[in-house]
């Protein structure tokens, strides 16, 4: 089943055309990694599909429900209630964690399920504690974000996204703010989620991780998808010169 279908997505900031017509589909239980140089449009694409940015043109369908399409040069969105339901189908994890600093770890996880989804407090708290245990953080429930390492904060951010029970998760460079040791921590969590068949779209610069965990790898450059396919094709045998040049550059780092 297709959980995400993006067609002809375009986005400009003033004169700068950042996305030049992106088509991407993501199936249930699929892990899709998006690679590409800085400025290729990866993060803007993720911000558009998570509706933090409004695209200028294109069509966005989530779990079979249309969120938006373009008509006569502008985007037409689904009614407010439908859009709210569509937004609940995905969770987003940022590179900078974006935790609420004045909330404890546990409250960061339980606040939205209780107040936005109107779920039972006891049930939500129980699920949140189970998620923290899964992330190896059950002893941190009453601590505040500033008391945690970057890797711990990112694990809390992932648990917070999972607490909303989304059908898919979007990650924007989840390890770019972390040193190598903490990066390994987060990649292990993502690998665990992949093993549990969580549908994920991951913008990453971790080539080895993308190769080992993805069902599909997408290479973006200059606001377009240059190449996409199985990791063995895109990473091991890239057909496009731009992909080859990027991977060679990454190897040299």
Q: Which H/E pattern describes the elements? A: EEEHEEEHEHHHEHEHEEHH
**Helical coverage, percent range:** 25-40%
- The helix count comes to 9
Kindly estimate the percentage of residues that lie in beta strands according to DSSP. Answer: 25-35%
What's the total count of β strands? 11
Query: What is the subunit organization of this protein?
Result: single chain
Mean pLDDT: 95
Q: How would you sum up the major sheet?
A: 6 strands, mixed
Strand order of the largest sheet: 7-8-9-3-10-11
Radius of gyration: 18 Å
Tell me the overall shape: globular
Give start-end ranges of low-pLDDT stretches: none
Written overview of the protein:
The chain is α/β, with parallel strands linked by helices and 253 residues long. The chain has a domain at 99-165. It is 38% helix and 28% strand. It is built from nine helices and eleven strands. It has a six-stranded mixed sheet with strand order 7-8-9-3-10-11, sandwiched between helices. A five-stranded antiparallel sheet has the order 2-1-4-5-6. Strand 8, helix 6 and strand 9 (199-203) form a beta-alpha-beta unit. Helix 3 packs parallel to helix 5, helix 4 (121-134) packs across helix 5 (150-163) and helix 5 runs parallel beside helix 6. The radius of gyration is 18 Å and the shape is globular. The model has no long low-confidence stretch (mean pLDDT 95).
């Amino acid at each position: 089943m297709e959980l995400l279908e993006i067609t002809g997505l375009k986005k400009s900031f003033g004169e700068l055309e950042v996305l030049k017509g992106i088509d991407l589909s993501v199936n249930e239980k699929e892990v899709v990694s998006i690679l590409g140089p800085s400025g290729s449009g990866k993060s803007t694409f993720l911000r558009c599909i998570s509706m933090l940015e409004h695209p200028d043109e294109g069509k966005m369908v989530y779990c079979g429900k249309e969120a938006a399409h373009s008509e006569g040069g502008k985007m037409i969105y689904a009614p407010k209630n439908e859009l709210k339901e569509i937004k609940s189908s995905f969770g987003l994890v940022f590179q900078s964690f974006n935790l609420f600093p004045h909330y404890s770890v546990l409250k960061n996880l339980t606040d939205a399920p209780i107040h936005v989804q109107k779920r039972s407090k006891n049930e939500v708290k129980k699920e949140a504690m189970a998620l923290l245990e899964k992330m190896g953080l059950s002893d941190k429930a009453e601590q505040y974000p500033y008391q945690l390492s970057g890797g711990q904060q990112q694990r809390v951010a992932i648990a917070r996204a999972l607490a909303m029970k989304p059908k898919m998760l979007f990650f924007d460079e989840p390890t770019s703010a972390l040193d190598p040791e903490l990066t390994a921590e987060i990649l292990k969590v993502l690998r665990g989620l992949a093993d549990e068949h969580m549908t994920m779209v991951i913008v990453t610069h971790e080539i080895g991780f993308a190769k080992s965990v993805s069902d599909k790898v997408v290479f973006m450059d200059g606001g377009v998808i240059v190449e996409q396919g199985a990791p063995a094709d895109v990473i091991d045998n890239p057909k496009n010169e731009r992909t080859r040049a990027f991977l060679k550059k990454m190897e040299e780092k």
